[in-house]
From TrEMBL:
<keyword id="KW-0804">Transcription</keyword>
<dbReference type="GO" id="GO:0005634">
    <property type="term" value="C:nucleus"/>
</dbReference>
<dbReference type="Pfam" id="PF13894">
    <property type="entry name" value="zf-C2H2_4"/>
</dbReference>
<keyword id="KW-0862">Zinc</keyword>
<dbReference type="GO" id="GO:0003677">
    <property type="term" value="F:DNA binding"/>
</dbReference>
<dbReference type="GO" id="GO:0008270">
    <property type="term" value="F:zinc ion binding"/>
</dbReference>
<dbReference type="Pfam" id="PF00096">
    <property type="entry name" value="zf-C2H2"/>
</dbReference>
<keyword id="KW-0479">Metal-binding</keyword>
<feature type="domain" description="C2H2-type">
    <location>
        <begin position="88"/>
        <end position="115"/>
    </location>
</feature>
<dbReference type="InterPro" id="IPR013087">
    <property type="entry name" value="Znf_C2H2_type"/>
</dbReference>
<feature type="domain" description="C2H2-type">
    <location>
        <begin position="60"/>
        <end position="87"/>
    </location>
</feature>
<dbReference type="InterPro" id="IPR036236">
    <property type="entry name" value="Znf_C2H2_sf"/>
</dbReference>
<feature type="domain" description="C2H2-type">
    <location>
        <begin position="144"/>
        <end position="171"/>
    </location>
</feature>
<feature type="domain" description="C2H2-type">
    <location>
        <begin position="256"/>
        <end position="284"/>
    </location>
</feature>
<keyword id="KW-0805">Transcription regulation</keyword>
<keyword id="KW-0238">DNA-binding</keyword>
<dbReference type="InterPro" id="IPR050589">
    <property type="entry name" value="Ikaros_C2H2-ZF"/>
</dbReference>
Amino acid sequence: MDLPNGECFMSTSTMSMIPKAAVSVPPESEVTEAPVNSSKPDHKWKFVGDCAYLTERKHFKCQFCDKKFAESGNLKKHIRTHTGEKPFKCVECGKHFTESSHLKRHLRVHSGEKPYRCDVCGLNFNQSGILKTHMIKHTGIKPYKCELCGKCFSGNGNLKIHFRTHTGYKPYKCEECGQTFCDNGNLKKHLRIHSGERPYECQECGKKFNHNGNLKEHMRIHFKNKPYKCDFCNKTFNHHGNLKEHTRVHTGEKPFKCEFCDQAFSQSGSMKRHIVKQHQIKNNDN
């Protein structure tokens, strides 16, 4: 049947619009292929029901996995996934990449360039993908759901990292002490314990921290911000850990038990003082 004039097809190779009037779909055909006129010998029409797509013929075949590509350049990029070749080197830190676009994106880490801006809150990002994930936070939508516990996430990457808490998979290992982590970010934070690096500095007093979260908690001291409120007596605290310790006053919970006697304590500090005073042991490990 002839398709009506004025409608268009999408070209999957060039993303340009192709007039439907130029194409006739074979009757009662769900999926067929037909050659394009001689001016485009490397293209073909592909029909799926009443929809038609202009696709490129894939002449370039991977010698490792038989995957085919329409352009030789795409084949070259793909082959690097098999060979491990990374020809693009960062002159700042020496890191290598398989594609020039990946190197270009990486260089923004050194330059501080953040060309992608959130129109809602004004935050800037160095990758468009990070901006897209960030934008979901404003909508409140969390489309990625853990099938084991039902917890939802705004990004697929966050879901993958979370899933490791169920499987116990920790692929990132500290070369200094052997401790393992489920994501690279936590490993980087941990490495600062060994290196002594404290990149987060308080602008009020100059104190430095190895975690951004610790700096944020510290800033509450200067601004007297106490967001953590006790459900029993309404007392407020600037650290969540302090609230947990205080709550035990109401619940009577004593999770810290002396290994030398049956006495238990609500705070680890109280237990340590007890061990020194009652058992004359300065170090628990001795």
